[in-house]
Amino acid sequence: MKSALGHIFIKLKNFVRLCIVSKQRDSFFTPASNIHPNFKLGSDNFLDISPNSSLQIGKDVIINQSNFITIKPNAKFTIGDGTYITRATISCLGEIEIGKNCILGEGMKIFDHNHEYTKDPFSVSKTDFNIGKVKIGNNVWTGANVVILKDVTIGDNVILGAGCVVHKDVPPNTILINQQTHKIINI
After folding, report:
1. Residue 53's CB: how many other CB atoms inside 10 A?
2. Which fold has domain 2-176?
3. pLDDT tens for residues 63-101?
4. Mean pLDDT of 112-140
5. CB 3.0 to 4.6 Å from 33: which of 19, 55, 136, 182, for a disulfide?
6. pLDDT at 183
7. Domain spans of the chain, in order of start
């Protein structure tokens, strides 16, 4: 009896998890979306997707578990066929385009914007942003904890090593590694 109840509990728990994932998956379907029917979404994702955004998600895309994805009104978010994303933070206020057959690793962050600021007097806005675009080519692999900032284009066939902060364009067929060098910029 105890074994049967345990089995029923596990089935119920899995059903509840599936319902939650299905509801989260439905949030990707905005009026301006084109989502391939075999798109897979894992569990424990936080999604903030505006119905006024545009989403294009290709065939065989997997957004695995524990991602934080924000797509604001009028933003455009595209993922090409065969791309896999896990435990990432993606914040799209303007446009983010991710190519085909990419593997975006754990702790990766993509931001297509940054906070506006003034120099004299020094002030950083909490709510106003400079919005740009991020374009990631095909066959791009990111190691753990890569950060990709606004107005960056990453070419095809690129490896971004663990811990890289990408703030300017990366040409195709490149391996970028984090050399742990620091440059101080006076503001």
Report:
1. 21
2. UDP N-Acetylglucosamine Acyltransferase; domain 1 (2.160.10)
3. 999 999 999 999 999 999 999 999 999 999 999 999 999
4. 94
5. 55
6. 59
7. 2-176
